[in-house]
Write a structure and sequence with these properties.
Largest sheet: 3 strands, antiparallel
Structural class: mainly alpha
Helix content: 55-70%
Distance between the termini: 13 Å
Strand content: under 5%
Number of helices: 12
Order of helices and strands: HHEHHEEHHHHHHHH
Length: about 260
């Protein structure tokens, strides 16, 4: 990580320095680094140097090291012997493999959840759909993804099958890493995508397990009703992705470290 770099991730470190003295530091560093990867301030193949991050935050290296190890366990960072940790680069094939595993789990979770979901549980899902709409209004891809992942995690829990919930817990970090949930490169109408999650909740509310299962499976496999311009080549509406793409081009020029 170049010490003379400006903007982007370095600015984020500077503005967050003081708050690390008030809470568990390793957790705060983890959240900061994770957000930097998710939002593109740290791009694929960028090197993450623990000593430099610790210096800029004004903390010891121990909590930074713990945060980096945690991100490596989740697959967001990879360790290269004698060189350090780097942000991973994901292939489209990796994402497709993840979706192949996710689809049958989502189908089963929806089938079971529709049979006995409670009004309180439905209200939790409704609240997450509202968070997605708020994220769209704020052009917040990271916030949308977090709400999306929490949505599908809760459905797996509401299914009432502890083995299914455990299986989701096993693959969820990889899905998050692979961006197989709430793809930030999605080039379509993000507001429509939020509405689509509302439709999924309505299907669970209806108690029609077969219809809910089919809809969740299609959603997981990318066969849902919201088109992606990367595949349809249709003119896109106002999207979060458009602003995000521009931001990534800017941060790429100001990246803290490159190791191509």
């Amino acid at each position: 990580m170049a010490s003379n770099a400006t903007g982007g991730f370095v600015s984020t470190l500077a503005t967050n320095k003081d708050r690390f003295r008030k809470t568990l530091i390793s957790d705060q560093v983890y959240e900061l680094l994770r957000q930097a990867v998710v939002e593109g301030d740290l791009a694929p193949n960028d090197r993450v140097v623990e000593s430099e991050i610790a210096r800029r935050l004004g903390v010891s290296q121990a909590p930074v090291r713990e945060a980096v190890k945690r991100l490596a366990r989740e697959g967001l960072l990879m360790h290269v012997p004698r060189r350090g940790h780097f942000v991973i680069e994901i292939s489209s094939q990796d994402a497709e493999y993840a979706r192949q595993v996710r689809e049958p789990l989502e189908r089963l979770a929806a089938q079971l959840a529709a049979e006995h979901i409670t009004e309180e549980q439905l209200a939790e899902l409704d609240a997450l759909v509202e968070r997605m709409h708020e994220a769209v209004d704020a052009n917040d891809v990271s916030g949308f993804r977090d709400a999306d992942i929490e949505f599908h995690t809760l459905v797996s829990q509401f299914a009432g099958n502890p083995f299914l919930a455990r299986m989701w817990e096993v693959i969820e970090p990889s899905l998050r890493t692979l961006r197989a949930i709430s793809d930030p490169l999605f080039d379509g109408d993000w507001c429509a995508m939020a509405h689509e999650h509302g439709r999924l909740v309505d299907l669970l509310r209806s108690g029609e397990g077969d219809k809910a299962a089919a809809a969740f499976a299609d959603h997981a496999a990318g066969r849902g009703p919201v088109p992606d311009a990367r595949e349809t080549k249709q003119p896109r509406k106002r999207t979060v992705a458009k602003k995000t793409a521009t931001a990534k081009k800017t941060t790429a020029k100001k990246a803290v470290t490159k190791n191509r």
